[in-house]
Amino acid sequence: MMLVAPSVSVAASDPLEPEQWAVAPGAILDLPAAWELSRGAGVTVAVIDSGIDLTHPDLAANLWTNTKEIAGNGRDDDGNGYVDDVNGIDLTTSGADNTPDDRNGHGTHVAGTIAAARDGRGVVGVAFKAKLMTIRVLDRNGLGTTEAVAAGVRYAASNGARIINMSLNGPAPSQALTAAVNAACSANVLLVVSAGNGGSNVDTTASYPVSIPSPCMVGVAGTSPAGGGRDLASNSNYGRYTIALAAPGVEVLSTALGGGYELRTGTSMATPHVAGVAALMLAVNPALTAPELRGRIMGAARAATLPVIAGYLEAADAVRAAASAVSQTLGQPPKLAAINVQVSGLTNHRWLQAQLTVAGSRALVRRYDVRARGRRIALIHTRRSTFVLRVHVRRAPRTISVVARDRAGRPVASLSAKVGVLREAKPYLGRKKPLATTSGLLWRATGMPASRPTHAAVAKRAPNPSATDSITIGGSQTVGALVADLIYYYRHATPGTARFNIVAGSSAIGIADAYRGVVSIGLAARDRRGSDPPGVVFTRMAGSAVCVATNARNELRNITGAQLREIVAGALTSWSQLPASGITGPLSIAAEPAFEGTQDAFDEAFLSPDVARAYRARYLPSAALVRQAIAHRRSAIGWLDLAHTAGLNVPSVDGIPCTLASVRSRRYPARHGLSFVTRGQPKGAAARFIRWVRTSGVARRVIAGRYVPVR
Prior knowledge:
Layout: E1 3-4, H1 31-35, E2 44-49, E3 88-90, H2 106-115, E4 131-136, E5 143-145, H3 146-158, E6 163-166, E7 168-169, H4 175-186, E8 190-194, E9 217-224, E10 231-232, E11 245-248, E12 252-255, E13 261-264, H5 267-284, H6 290-299, E14 311-312, H7 315-324, E15 335-346, E16 349-359, E17 367-372, E18 375-380, E19 386-393, E20 399-405, E21 411-418, E22 420-421, E23 441-444, E24 470-475, H8 477-493, E25 499-504, H9 507-516, E26 521-524, E27 536-550, E28 558-559, H10 561-569, E29 588-591, H11 598-606, E30 617-619, H12 623-631, E31 636-641, E32 652-653, H13 660-664, E33 671-679, H14 684-695, H15 697-704, E34 708-709
Helix pairs in contact: 2-5, 3-4, 5-7, 6-7, 8-15, 14-15
């Protein structure tokens, strides 16, 4: 492994930045453009790994600090169960010491990729203004226990991290880790996890924790420098339905122990690129929930032929998507949930700590009234979706009650939660139990595995969530906009119905998530194909079409299929070759990526298989952004969903207009379906909603305003 001596420079950029191929302007990651919008300030990323070199000059300035803890006094000042956790915690021992200094180098390298400072020395991190919370779970050999990792996830979620980086994996599941992942998701934390380095398909050979189905988890494969990061690394795991993205993971230059810098390879190195981009996104839009953040970062990926769900990580488009995103409460009242409620400390000096989260319309809430033993112990004023209460109590209550009140003091949501007792720090590790013999061993992605745990594997897919009374919907943004309107009318037509949670993404994401049980209902802007995963059911709700569109000032009224093929083949590149347009100059092409589904409808209708794609299209993650690009550039031409063509010039193709009437009559060739996707036949609340959409007169009228309803 090559080591590079640390250096100091007063240059505007860090001296080793030119050697970071993922940061280069020509790389597919496109970080320089993302940095014009965000640098990650105000976001805390937890690194669950082998620790961090706390004195490294490129990392020290960006270390997270627990301001409620007094360093070196041997006490648990903030009552969270850990003594002197100033920069994080050390979960590799059962002792009270919590200095998470790295003795392996793996975590230090990961941390540098996320947030090495841009300070004129060494390398630069993806989110070089973000803070790094250090959680040491791997020893000097790169090994640790699932119990420690689970405790690290809970610690990060309870202490303000919005993103968790886990560049580690192992072959066996763990109930404790799954429960911790679910708790972190409820606390609005995004978990970014490495795919692993076995060169295996994790759709069929599970790897943990990346195979845990969660709407808050992003699995990451690694790419090599060839072509700016377009080739999958030879040893990277993959999975078309499990691994979300691919990011740079070969010969990544980052921070090393002792203040130096080194090259490392593995999906462990790819994962922090995604965590860093997520931090850039949260910095421009802190209101995004973890599932929304996951959907946006995947939806903004650049389409690829790689065996992953979405494609290549694309930083600039991801940050733009986050900046323009608006959370949808869907008209739902607030709903409170307790993530963790516990007391700790001495009998006469106890801390009560409660981590609470609120979903739905938070704008209704003005304050939270917290009571224990019949009296008020706190009154909280916050607009955050997740917040932590810490208060002194003389005696530990058995339960607490929380009431959310509106401006007039009326209750709009409430909960009652049992109070647990934290008796000692790190009790789950045991006092004499060596790590090497603990069941459920994990190893970092670039290291060698420990002995395989003896307990049996469990199914990697979650129980079918469509049978519950809470419906999570995710996938195509084109379909999602329609479904959000349908949910509004459904909730008014059926009082007391299920709660809905809808997040953006793409058709490919919706199908993969429905297959793995991550969402109750996936959304796809297409019909079922033979290549889709087994067992998924497509229920069509509407018909649409992909239209060719130009700027409103373009006079083009008709374009032929032959001309479209010439555009794609690179033979027709200037408007002067289309004199009916009334403009000159080069064509600027915009379109949605292939994983949304609309591109396929266009290709099947207008292109032949032998047409080579020589054109340079600007692929944008949603039809709304494609429309915006065409509307603001006179030279633009593109193809997008029918419902998004308002205000644009929509020429006919071979004399057939792209309209609702031509879609209804099946004359227009580039038609596609808008579908619900479920794992098996829909059940419970999901089935009732889908049935209402397909049969209700109200739903049909809503759909008919922009699409063709199913008959």
